[in-house]
Specification:
globular, about 15% strand, 16 helices, binds pyridoxal-5'-phosphate, 2 domains, Aspartate Aminotransferase, domain 1, Aspartate Aminotransferase, domain 2, alpha/beta
């Protein structure tokens, strides 16, 4: 186990250029809701983030000023809506170092990963082939590959997780030596918080001829992500955990692979020509965007990306890392709550903005329930990672996840709340 980093555990609010209160004040739910006269402590951004005014305003503006369908109409309103939608794509792409052609909108990360499994997968994975995942994947990056491998009679193998919450890289190398078709890996684990070395994994996997898909769902809102540095083939993420609306996710793909892949869903907008018995496909990225798009949602996600960039991703990372370091210090190095076991790496530098833990004698649901009854919102359950729960030997954990609006006062409320859990459940 690595020592707890006490780095930046002071009571600053990060280098946003505005106070923590001013950042928090931009979230309507945090402004509008209180609990017994105290602010709600929202520690569940890894499930879904709160939405800042800027995102809601951008979507409202589309609905009240610019609503029209996109791509098909030639009148000015339709052109304006198209510009808003495609403008959002361009800004989202350039934020992560991708291109608009390689940036496909999907319903969420799950849909983005399924797109790859159903199109690239069915074209490239044959009987007896190997697909490699890791033990710390979310079900979204497991079940689509199970369906594919069952359909193709292909083999699925998992890179084990070490006892300190990292991927076993030697085991990865042994699996790579068998020449898998694809390696699927989560960038930041939604349970352990582990930040996986995806650039290094991609280098090793490419050397063995494998295609690499990264689930960047937790990473995009928590870390500076620059896709050219990672050099992976597919990178999927979701809008609603990145301060954007629900109903939109993104798949970034390597252009050469996207060009070769068949479409996922057929219908309007993704075709070039349609004859009675066959069709041809339009250009990227629209080949993968059949039907009327999530117009307001894409515009909202574009606004979310602008808003994140306004705060600065390095500042967001520093702010959240400081909160994680403080929580780790208070739960692990100078434990204030007896019986807590933190899952995953114990240095904030190795983690994203979340901490999962168990408390001896308490079920995670009871912990979340008691915390919730004092206005502290945390998630309890298997976090859609049942194989990882089995590896950890626990049925469930409690997870606190941080965002830009959280403060050291929120860590205080969580730790105080855990004391109350102990007394309510008579664990003393
Ligand atoms: C690591 C990870 N991958 C994928 C997902 C799925 O995201 P969505 O439900 O938005 O598709 C989640 C959501 O919890 C997640 O944490």
């Amino acid at each position: 186990m690595t020592a707890v980093s006490s780095q930046a555990s002071g009571r600053t609010s990060g280098g946003f250029g505005v106070s923590g209160e001013e950042v928090a004040a931009q979230f309507p739910v945090l402004r509008n809701r209180s609990f017994d006269g105290r602010p709600v402590v929202y520690l569940d951004s890894s499930a879904t983030s709160q939405t800042p005014d800027a995102v809601i305003d951008a979507m409202t503006s589309y609905y009240t000023q610019s609503r029209a369908s996109i791509h098909r109409g030639v009148y000015p309103l339709a052109a304006e809506a198209t510009d808003l939608y495609e403008g959002a794509r361009t800004r989202i792409a350039s934020w992560l170092g991708s291109s608009p052609q390689e940036t496909i909108f999907a319903a969420n990360a799950t849909a983005a990963i399924n797109m790859v499994a159903y199109t690239w997968g069915r074209q490239n994975v044959q009987r007896g082939d190997l697909v490699v995942l890791t033990e710390m994947e979310h079900h979204s990056n497991i079940v689509p590959w199970q369906l594919l491998c069952q359909d193709r009679e292909a083999e699925l193998a998992y890179v084990p997780v070490t006892s300190d919450g990292f991927l076993d890289m030697e085991a990865l190398d042994s699996l790579l030596a068998r020449g898998p078709r694809l390696v699927g890996v989560v960038h930041v684990s939604n349970v352990l918080g582990t930040v996986n070395p995806v650039a290094s994994i991609a280098r090793r996997a490419h050397a063995c001829g494998a295609v690499v898909l990264v689930d960047g769902t937790q990473a995009v809102p928590q870390l500076p992500v620059w896709l050219p540095e990672l050099d992976v083939d597919f990178y999927a993420w979701t809008g609603h955990k990145a301060y954007g609306p629900t109903g939109i996710g993104v798949l970034h793909g390597r252009r050469a692979l996207l060009e070769e892949m068949p479409p996922f869903i057929g219908g309007g907008h993704m075709i070039r020509t349609v004859a009675a018995n066959e069709s041809t496909w339009t250009d990227l990225p629209w080949k993968f965007e059949a039907g009327t798009s999530q117009i307001a949602e894409a515009i909202g996600l574009g606004a979310a990306v602008d808003w994140i960039q306004g705060l600065g991703m390095p500042s967001i990372r520093a702010h959240e890392q400081a909160l994680v370091a403080e929580l780790l210090e208070r739960l692990v190095s100078l434990p204030e709550v007896p019986g807590v076991t933190v899952q995953g790496p114990l240095a904030a530098a190795d983690r994203g903005a979340l901490v999962s833990f168990t408390l001896d004698g308490a079920h995670p649901h009871d912990i979340a329930d008691i915390l919730g009854s004092s206005g502290v919102c945390v998630r309890a359950g298997h976090h859609c990672a049942q194989p990882l729960m089995r590896r950890l030997g626990v049925p469930a954990t409690t997870r606190a996840s941080f965002a830009v609006h959280n403060s050291p006062g929120d860590v205080d409320r969580l730790v105080e709340g855990l004391g109350r859990v102990r007394s309510t459940l008579r664990l003393d």
